[in-house]
Amino acid sequence: MIGPGVHVRLARPSRNLAAAERFYVGGLGLAVLWRTTERVPGEHDLLMAGPPGAAWHLELTHDPENPLEPAPTVDDLLVLYLGEPADEALVERLVAAGGTRVPSHNPYWDEHGVTVADPDGYRLVLCSRVWG
User: What is the distance between the alpha carbons of residues 24 and 4, in angstroms, rounded to a whole number?
Assistant: First the structure.
């Protein structure tokens, strides 16, 4: 059985880790938890971002030797339950950091939040509801 204290890592390929960092760290406000600092042949470049001390983080990867093209669908979502409407200044920061405000495929998310695509096309939903 998996308990509530298990740490979750969501790993995704990225075309450009610097652009992803601008979006998730500069725009959203996550912290850089770890990153590769030099190119190691045969290994992926990594950026790990998340809230310090949280039970989850994003691992964004780039393999310069065999790059993967990110292939998000309109329903690949990272949903953050804010418990209040998203601050428009936050949405503007995300857009200024390389994101694109988009209508959601599922109208539920437009009713209860704001959807912003990151520079690789993955969608972040800032939900006004709470979980649980």
Answer: 25
Query: Tokens 């039970």, residue?
Result: 55
Please check the confidence at residue 37 and state whether its pLDDT lies above 80. no
Map residue 54 onto helix, strand or coil: coil
CB 13 within 8 A of CB 61: yes
How far the first Cα of the chain sits from its last, in Å, is 20
pLDDT at 50 over 80: yes
Tokens of 123: 């969608």
Residue 38: is it exposed, middle or buried by C-beta count within 10 angstroms (0-12/13-18/19+)? exposed
Rounded percentage of the chain residues whose pLDDT exceeds 90: 85
According to DSSP H, which parts of the chain are helical?
Answer: 17-21, 88-96, 107-111
Whether this model's pTM surpasses 0.85: yes
